[in-house]
Amino acid sequence: MEYLLYRFFCFLGMHLPEWFAYFIGNTIAELRYWFCPVLKKIITGNIRQVLIYRQQTHNIDFDEKLLKKIVKRIYRNFGIYMVEFFQIPKWNREMVQKKVEVVNIHYLDHVLEKSKGAIVLTAHLGNWELAGVVTSLLGYNLSAVALPFKNEKIALVFVRRRKSKGVNVILTGANPKEYLRALKKNGVIAILGDRLFTEKGICVKFMGKDTFLPRGPATLAVKCNAGYLAGFLIRKKRGKYMLVFDRPMEMPDTDEQQKVQSLVEQGARYLEKYIMKYPDQWLNFSKMWDTKER
């Protein structure tokens, strides 16, 4: 049943008028907002901490009214994200040139000049699925690390959509040779780093609190001596985007464990920077912090 639902939305994404597809996406998001109280509580807790930390570091005031407004926008942005995902087959290089502002891609080019590949740290921010598609359509050899779905048929839907635009998919838990193969081709590997999946994390300060973030992206960069930088696809307005990369992170001249720790800490600063700037586009629906102090 779930697979048929995905196939149905794939059909709608390709054949419905764009305005009607967004209307359906917004309607579903609105229903989830009102009828999924547990999820809303998790999102509200996450965003509250983001806004508290932003107030402490950037002196930007917030109140419960603003918090509620941002949480509601998150649901709407998730509806838009899903519509955009099902419209991926429509994307081509011409659409990228028309719809996407590319910012600081010279940072990625600079890293790739060393011919050791690049690890791009990203997050559940804006549209991470579309970020890989856009980067691939710009001519980069991109691999995306993804969680395997329990439902193999649904997994196939996601994999086919990515591969149709040149995005190679590496599933978490895959043979390490998959990563090495991609980097030996001087490829780009995009990895989500704003929540734990299957691995043990490293404890760092994130949004002002001790938080466990993935060590995998940093470990891969250290072991393969690959470049390490952050990149995101931010939605500027409906149908218009910004693909942005930031300055490559510096690898300290220390032992391997300290290098990994340093890169995870540096990565946390970049995640904070963009999440605080676009909190209503942070679509992380996992509980990041305890509501009570330990």
Secondary structure layout:
Blueprint: H1 2-15, H2 18-35, H3 37-58, H4 64-86, H5 93-99, E1 100-103, H6 105-112, E2 118-122, H7 128-137, E3 142-146, H8 152-163, E4 168-171, H9 176-184, E5 188-192, E6 201-206, E7 209-214, H10 216-224, E8 227-237, E9 240-245, H11 256-277
Parallel strand pairs: 1-9, 2-5, 2-8, 3-4, 3-5
Antiparallel strand pairs: 6-7, 8-9
Q: What would you say this structure looks like, in words?
A:
- The chain has helices at residues 2-15, 18-35, 37-58, 64-86, 93-99, 105-112, 128-137, 152-163, 176-184, 216-224, 256-277, and strands at residues 100-103, 118-122, 142-146, 168-171, 188-192, 201-206, 209-214, 227-237, 240-245.
- The protein is α/β, with parallel strands linked by helices.
- The chain has one domain (2-281).
- The strands form 2 sheets. It has a 7-stranded mixed beta sheet with strand order 1-9-8-2-5-3-4, with helices on both faces.
- A hairpin with a 2-residue loop joins β8 and β9.
Give a short synopsis of this structure.
Helix content is 52%, strand content 18%. The chain is of the alpha/beta class.
